[in-house]
Amino acid sequence: MRGWMGKFRSLFLFGALTMLLTGCGIENISALKPKGYGSELLFDLMLISIAIMIFVFVIVMAIYAFVLLRYREKKGQEHIVPKQTEGNKALEVIWTVIPIILLLVLAIPTVQATFDLADQSTQGDEGVLTVDVTGNQYWWQFDYADQEISTSQEIYIPTNERVYLNMKASDVIHSFWVPAIAGKMDTIPGENINTMYLEAYEEGVYEGFCAELCGPSHSLMYFKVIAVSPDEFDQWVEDMQNIDPEATPETTTAQEGQELFNNNCMSCHAIGGASAGVGPNLGNFANREKIAGILQPSKDNLVDWIVHPDEIKPGNQMPAELVSEEDAAKIADYLLELDHSDVGNDLEMQSVEE
Ligand code: CUA
């Protein structure tokens, strides 16, 4: 009975681990497949610590096995008490010095990496990009102050360049994490600005997460890092700067949608230009990989989101049923026309939600 239960238990554990770990190797999401400077540094640290752990484990297990086999109680020796020893100086020194060496081997690159990742020496230099990041329940705002543009949910960066992030939160503590490119950094409400930098080696769409429990929709607070070539990045900036919030949409329903949007949504949102403040800037909405960071970009999903944001992302600030389903459909037509840049559209990503 016990044996059967044991087998069942390990089967269950194996199944649970399989489910849990399937996300670990996904391209552009995984810290185990580093695609940027920060994540590569952290991955190397992981390898060093795993190597040290394996080294210690193998040695300890080898000694353990040797002692078990060598000093077993043998037939006819049941009453022999082995020679008792204590205070072996050589042994004491060995098992004190070896861990110290191992810790030093671990500590030196760790401290080096910590300083390296906190380095800001080139911030503010000519041609070096800085983006202001704000964490909100449950979306991310990205302000490019020098370029006078603002976007949300998807941060565009040029490849193979350091992009500095100045980070804060508007409400509660969030944590900005793009496992495949960089480490993790908390965003904190108030005056405190945390900093880090991104440097992506390859073009691509990288999944980002909020890594600090921040409310009921914490686990839905996804964002994307879209890394494109420096030339394409310049093109994107130009496209974003050229967004005209007053431009007349093509279809009649979209025109009606624009009016409805301006009357109902503009007190929180913005289209193009500087940051919106309360809600996301939707200037490049139709270029987004996802609606609200989680839904596939379709009109039906968008209408659902506009009417029932509370059901899709519980606890978020967007009012539910502000407009009727019919009006929401017109607003959706308008938003889906906000297609101002082709940059990054050719990039695909594997996603955790699919
Ligand atoms: Cu924001 Cu968790």
TrEMBL record:
It catalyses: 4 Fe(II)-[cytochrome c] + O2 + 8 H(+)(in) = 4 Fe(III)-[cytochrome c] + 2 H2O + 4 H(+)(out). It is found in: Cell membrane; Membrane. InterPro entries: CcO_II, CcO_II-like_C, Copper_CuA, Cupredoxin, CuRO_CcO_Caa3_II, Cyt_c-like_dom, Cyt_c-like_dom_sf, Cyt_c_oxidase_su2. SUPFAM superfamilies: Cupredoxins, Cytochrome c, Cytochrome c oxidase subunit II-like, transmembrane region. GO terms for cellular component: plasma membrane. Binds a copper A center. It is an enzyme of class 7 (translocase). Keywords: Copper, Electron transport, Heme, Iron, Membrane, Metal-binding, Respiratory chain, Translocase, Transmembrane, Transmembrane helix, Transport. GO terms for molecular function: copper ion binding; cytochrome-c oxidase activity; heme binding; oxidoreductase activity. The chain crosses the membrane at residues 41-69, 90-111. Residues 23-121 form the Cytochrome oxidase subunit II transmembrane region profile domain. Belongs to the cytochrome c oxidase subunit 2 family. This is Cytochrome c oxidase subunit 2. It comes from Halobacillus faecis. The lineage of its organism: Bacteria, Bacillati, Bacillota, Bacilli, Bacillales.
